């Protein structure tokens, strides 16, 4: 039977049931069913001695004899209690229902195998309503020892498609197709890593004979799953490198040299130099660059972006930076306009609020090539925005843009511009590997010299007054402070109210005219936001009350305190981004995390992590462990994470192995034409036709 056939070909599956399995679990073909894996197993391979039982044991199997049976009165009715003993100790078996019938059928002092969920109460163990069988009977039967338990839904259970049914379907299917299941890896890989054969892995993942076999089967299937994703990504990267031509920036000319010699306001850090070298190597290679630049907040990505753009301009091209918000775009614009102020360079800003007249002028100078650098927001993606010859597109804080938008910038040219994606959200290496495996990655892992670490503390709401006192002292020293309130989309109205209440109480605590307060939130018009931001940037206000709109990018070096209200409601990466807003000047800066007393264990871990480290990568690792990969910013659209059996966090070692193996295979045989790779090639082709994951990563 062909595995692509619908599951109605399997004995016992009617059209009705097939429809239900499809709508509830997405299972359509035999192959889908075969790859629908149990999430746990009932392990009947192990027998426990009674004295080995632990209070946290779940389901256990014990051999022993019943020595006594009695009926015990309780609040309502009674329960039947049997004393069950083995050589090591004794426990109880308990029944609430069918007591009479059970009492009559129990055989005293005869060996039984009992199995069930273990309870522990008042120092003694019991199993309510155990499954039991006489040892003499047990020995006669062929045992299925580890039973798979499959994910299910309420609707399936209500429609009578129980776990037992699914088990039977898969058993039937395996019987029909086992001999025909094709290997998908090469002999070499299987030998090298001592992997189980594919068909045995599938058999054992559903019906394992032992824990060891199960572990081997899972390992094989995880490896395979990760290997093919990596093979796909690595191959895509290689193809892009060789097939997609990129502009060659081989001249280091006037703009770059002049800036480097005369206008660079500081020495580059070693990390900045290294990253720049990596970028220049790409740009000179003739291949198309598609690079991710990771660097924590404040690590100095802007200057790298500028130098890269100057290189493009020296080679006769235009350059652009796209940022996710107006505030951030104008900040980039201001920084870059200032840095290049004494050079003969035209730089413009294009956002949603650019006036029509200005907009037209920008369109024109862009098309005739006199405009060299254009910085902006989504507005850059409009059809009217046509570059004469865009050489490089730099995208800041990329997790805010969907993948589709990235390629929209790309489509503007017949030859795609080089792409540099900058992100301040540190992505743990293994995750980056699985989500961005087709990009090259550069990391700025060093902060500019002289930065003082932001002192971070956690305070409860009840200490608010001493926090305010501290803020007053800082303001008296001429510093500025941020007060941030959470904004969580589901309850926008409530959050808005929190913010406004907060603003009012702050206004009372910090009265005008002595104190001036800015307020910025998501409901304001961009122009109003900008006005309030500017007042704070210019130092006209000392306090900025805001929702997370300030999360991205604003740079006010004089601000030295970040107070985060309801800090327990923020995610780790948000907290880290927010903290990055201070500590930009020469002064000691502070981050104060305010929370209520009620903290979930996870919230506690988040707050503790923040007070203990400022290393963005460490914070990202904790975040990944707490929330799982699907919730890490920027990974949501990525189908790579809808894995069937592997887990990019827990199985990161297998992931690295799978990636290296994929690189190795493609290195030796780029087109997978060699005889030994015939299975791999077949499997890859098949997967790219059928799997949902693939369309997501491409
Ligand atoms: P981010 O990576 O968060 O975008 P920026 O590019 O905004 O960081 O840089 C943060 C601050 O550090 C800016 O004020 C910038 O001028 C400064 N800076 C960047 N690189 C250096 C360096 N090598 N030495 C000193 N200051 C630097
Ligand atoms: Mg930045």
TrEMBL record:
Any one biological process term the GO annotation gives: DNA recombination
PROSITE patterns: HELICASE_ATP_BIND_1 (PS51192), HELICASE_CTER (PS51194)
Entry's transmembrane regions: none
UniProt enzyme class: isomerase
Entry keywords, A to Z: ATP-binding, DNA damage, DNA recombination, DNA repair, DNA-binding, Helicase, Hydrolase, Isomerase, Nucleotide-binding
Helicase C-terminal domain span: 463-630
Gene3D superfamilies membership: Nucleic acid-binding proteins, P-loop containing nucleotide triphosphate hydrolases
Family annotation (Pfam families): DEAD, Helicase_C, RecG_dom3_C, RecG_wedge
Gene Ontology MF terms in the entry: 3'-5' DNA helicase activity; ATP binding; ATP hydrolysis activity; DNA binding
Record-linked SUPFAM superfamilies: Nucleic acid-binding proteins, P-loop containing nucleoside triphosphate hydrolases
InterPro entries recorded: ATP-dep_DNA_helicase_RecG, DEAD/DEAH_box_helicase_dom, Helicase_ATP-bd, Helicase_C-like, NA-bd_OB-fold, P-loop_NTPase, RecG/Mfd, RecG_dom3_C
Catalytic activity, EC: 5.6.2.4
Reactions listed under catalytic activity: Couples ATP hydrolysis with the unwinding of duplex DNA by translocating in the 3'-5' direction; ATP + H2O = ADP + phosphate + H(+)
Domain Helicase ATP-binding: start-end pairs: 282-444
Entry-linked CDD domains: DEXHc_RecG, RecG_wedge_OBF
Function: Plays a critical role in recombination and DNA repair. Helps process Holliday junction intermediates to mature products by catalyzing branch migration. Has replication fork regression activity, unwinds stalled or blocked replication forks to make a HJ that can be resolved. Has a DNA unwinding activity characteristic of a DNA helicase with 3'-5' polarity.
Family of this protein: Belongs to the helicase family. RecG subfamily.
Record PANTHER family: ATP-DEPENDENT DNA HELICASE HOMOLOG RECG, CHLOROPLASTIC
Protein name in UniProt: ATP-dependent DNA helicase RecG
Source organism per UniProt: Polaribacter aquimarinus
């Amino acid at each position: 039977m062909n595995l692509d056939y619908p599951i109605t070909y399997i004995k016992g599956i009617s059209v009705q049931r097939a429809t239900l399995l499809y709508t509830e679990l997405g299972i359509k073909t035999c192959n889908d069913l075969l790859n629908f894996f149990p999430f746990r197993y009932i392990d009947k391979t192990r027998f426990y001695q009674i004295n080995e039982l632990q209070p946290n044991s779940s389901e256990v199997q014990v051999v022993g004899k019943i020595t006594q049976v009695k009926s015990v009165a309780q609040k309502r009715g009674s329960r039947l209690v049997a004393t069950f003993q083995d050589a090591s100790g004794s426990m109880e078996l308990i029944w609430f229902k069918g007591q009479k019938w059970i009492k009559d059928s129990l055989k005293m002092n005869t060996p039984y195998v009992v199995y069930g969920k273990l309870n522990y109460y008042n120092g003694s163990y019991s199993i309510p309503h155990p499954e039991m069988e006489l040892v003499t009977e047990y020995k006669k039967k062929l045992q299925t020892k580890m039973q798979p338990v499959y994910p299910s839904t309420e609707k399936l259970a209500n429609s009578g498609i129980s776990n037992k049914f699914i088990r039977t379907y898969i058993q039937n299917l395996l019987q029909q197709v086992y001999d025909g299941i094709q290997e998908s890896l090469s002999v070499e890989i299987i030998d090298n890593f001592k992997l189980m054969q594919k068909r045995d892995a599938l058999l054992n993942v559903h019906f394992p004979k032992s824990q060891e076999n199960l572990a081997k089967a899972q390992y094989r299937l995880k490896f395979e799953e990760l290997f093919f994703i990596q093979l796909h990504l690595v191959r895509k990267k290689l193809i892009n490198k060789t097939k997609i031509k990129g502009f060659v920036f081989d001249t280091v000319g006037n703009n770059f040299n002049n800036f480097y010699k005369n206008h660079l306001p500081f020495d580059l850090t070693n990390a900045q130099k290294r990253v720049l070298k990596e970028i220049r190597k790409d740009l000179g290679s003739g291949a198309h660059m598609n690079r991710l630049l990771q660097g924590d907040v404040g690590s100095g990505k802007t200057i790298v972006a500028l130098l890269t753009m100057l290189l493009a301009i020296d080679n006769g091209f235009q350059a652009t930076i796209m940022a996710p918000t107006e505030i951030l775009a104008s900040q980039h614009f201001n920084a870059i306009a200032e840095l290049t102020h004494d050079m003969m360079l035209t730089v413009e800003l294009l956002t949603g609020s650019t006036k029509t007249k200005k907009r037209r002028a920008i369109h024109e100078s862009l098309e005739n090539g006199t405009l060299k650098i254009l910085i902006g927001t989504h507005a850059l993606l409009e059809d009217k925005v046509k570059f004469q010859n865009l050489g490089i597109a730099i995208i800041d804080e990329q997790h805010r843009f969907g993948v589709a938008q990235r390629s929209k910038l790309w489509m503007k040219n017949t030859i795609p511009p080089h792409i540099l994606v900058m992100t301040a959200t540190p992505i743990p290496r293994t995750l980056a590997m699985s989500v961005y495996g087709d990009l090259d990655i550069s990391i700025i892992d060093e902060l500019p010299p002289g930065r003082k670490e932001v002192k971070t503390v956690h305070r409860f709401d009840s200490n608010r007054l001493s926090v305010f006192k501290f803020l007053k002292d800082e303001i008296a020293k001429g510093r500025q402070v941020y007060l941030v309130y959470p904004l969580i989309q589901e309850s926008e109205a409530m959050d808005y109210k929190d913010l406004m209440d907060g603003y009012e109480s702050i206004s009372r605590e910090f009265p005008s005219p002595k104190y001036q307060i800015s307020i910025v939130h998501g409901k304001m018009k961009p122009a109003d936001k900008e006005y309030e931001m500017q007042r704070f940037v210019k130092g006209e206000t000392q306090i900025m009350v805001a929702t997370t709109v300030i999360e991205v990018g604003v740079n006010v070096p004089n601000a030295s305190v970040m107070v985060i209200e309801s800090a327990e409601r923020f995610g780790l990466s948000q907290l880290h981004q927010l903290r990055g807003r201070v500590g930009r000047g020469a002064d000691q800066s502070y981050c104060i995390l305010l929370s209520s007393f009620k903290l979930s264990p996870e919230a506690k871990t988040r707050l503790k992590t923040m007070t203990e480290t400022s290393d963005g990568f460490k914070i990202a690792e904790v975040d990944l462990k707490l929330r799982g990969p699907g919730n890490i910013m920027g990974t949501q659209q990525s189908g790579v994470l809808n894995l069937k059996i592997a887990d990019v966090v827990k199985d990161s070692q297998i992931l690295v192995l799978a990636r290296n193996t994929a690189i190795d295979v493609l290195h030796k045989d780029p087109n997978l034409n060699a005889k030994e790779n015939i299975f791999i090639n077949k499997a890859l082709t098949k997967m790219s036709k059928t799997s949902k994951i693939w369309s997501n990563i491409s």
